[in-house]
Each structure stands twice: as C-alpha cells, then as structure tokens.
C-alpha cells in the first residue's frame, strides 16, 4: 500500500501525461515536425518522474516515534550487525530506554547480512577520562531481530 497517496496519484498522472507525450512524439517523428527531438527529452523526463514518484510512494517507510525518546544521530553503522547512536550530554536517565528503542525500530533490515540476523543498537556518550583523552560510555543497548522485527532492550 502506498504510504503517501498524493505522491502515488501524482505518479499516475505523470504516467498518463508521459503516455500522451509519447503519442505526440511518435506523431512528431512521422510528420517530421521540428520539435520532435525536444519532445523526446520532455517525454523521457516525464516518464522518469512518473516512475520515481511511484517507486518512492510505494517504498517509503515513515520513522517510528516513541513517547519520551530524544532524537539522536547515528554515528556508526557497519551495515550488518552494529549501530551506534550518540547521546547528548543532557540526556535524562529516564529517556535512555525509549531513545534506544526508537533508534532500534528505525533501523531497516534490508541489505543487512548478519550471521545471526540480529542487529545490536547502542546508545553511547563520550565522557572525559583524563586531560586530553576521553572514553565512550554505553548508556543503553537494544537487539533488533531482523527475522521478526522484535526489539529487546538490555538493562
């Protein structure tokens, strides 16, 4: 089902316009009109827009939003089994669990090739260890099972 019905409808209308332009382009070539080569460009661009609108409207997946979660950037993603997000310095302890869950639910499994089909999502903060050095501290971790889509949050 299309996530955005307006974009899907725009793709259908652009497809119809591309079909009409294709007919006009064929007539232009048969009648040797001077604008026939310009019509080729306009027709192909219109059909490309139609295909793009239809593909995007079908493949779009909206982001999951969990109450109490903060928006955090993903700073590392190896594409297989590990995703790390950076927590801001002012992140409240009660916001850690929903934040790591939201990051895990927004990780998409297509293209990930993990042996156990599990993606580990970590929420970390970098804290100073000594002058001139710092260390990462893991605040929360979640496991996303790609086969079922279930998220397990580790304490």
Residues in helices, as a percent range: 25-40%
Summed up, the helix count is 3
Summing up helix and strand content along with how strands pair, one would put the structural category as: alpha+beta
Distance between the termini: 37 Å
Net shape: elongated
Beta-strand level of the residues, as a percent range? Answer: 25-35%
What's the helix and strand layout?
Blueprint: H1 5-31, H2 36-59, E1 74-77, E2 82-86, H3 96-105, E3 118-130, E4 133-145, E5 151-154
Parallel strand pairs: 2-3
Antiparallel strand pairs: 1-2, 3-4, 4-5
Helix pairs in contact: 1-2
What does this protein structure show overall?
The structure is a single chain. The chain is of the alpha+beta class. The chain has 2 domains: about 5-60; about 75-155, no CATH class. The protein has helices at about 5-30, 35-60, 95-105, and strands at about 75, 80-85, 120-130, 135-145, 150-155. The protein has a 5-stranded mixed β-sheet, with helices on one face. The longest helix is centred in the N-terminal third of the chain and has 27 residues, at about 5-30. It is elongated and about 80 Å long.
What key attributes describe this structure?
2 domains, alpha+beta, 155 residues, 39% helix, elongated
Question: What's the quick description here?
Answer:
The protein has 3 helices and 5 strands; from the N terminus they run H-H-E-E-H-E-E-E. With 155 residues, the chain is an alpha+beta fold.
């Amino acid at each position: 089902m299309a996530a955005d019905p307006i974009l899907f409808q725009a793709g259908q209308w652009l497809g119809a316009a591309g079909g009409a332009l294709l007919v006009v382009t064929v007539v232009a070539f048969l009648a040797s009109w001077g604008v026939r080569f310009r019509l080729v460009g306009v027709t192909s661009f219109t059909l490309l827009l139609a295909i793009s609108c239809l593909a995007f409207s079908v493949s779009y997946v909206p982001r999951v939003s969990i109450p109490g979660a903060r928006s955090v950037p993903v700073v590392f993603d190896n594409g297989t089994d590990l995703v790390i997000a950076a927590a801001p310095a002012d992140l409240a302890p009660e916001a850690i669990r929903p934040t790591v869950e939201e990051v895990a639910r927004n990780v998409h499994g297509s293209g990930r090739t993990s042996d156990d089909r599990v993606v580990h999502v970590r929420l970390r903060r970098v804290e100073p260890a000594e002058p001139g050095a710092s260390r990462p501290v893991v605040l929360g971790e979640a496991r996303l099972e790609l086969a079922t889509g279930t998220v397990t949050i580790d304490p």
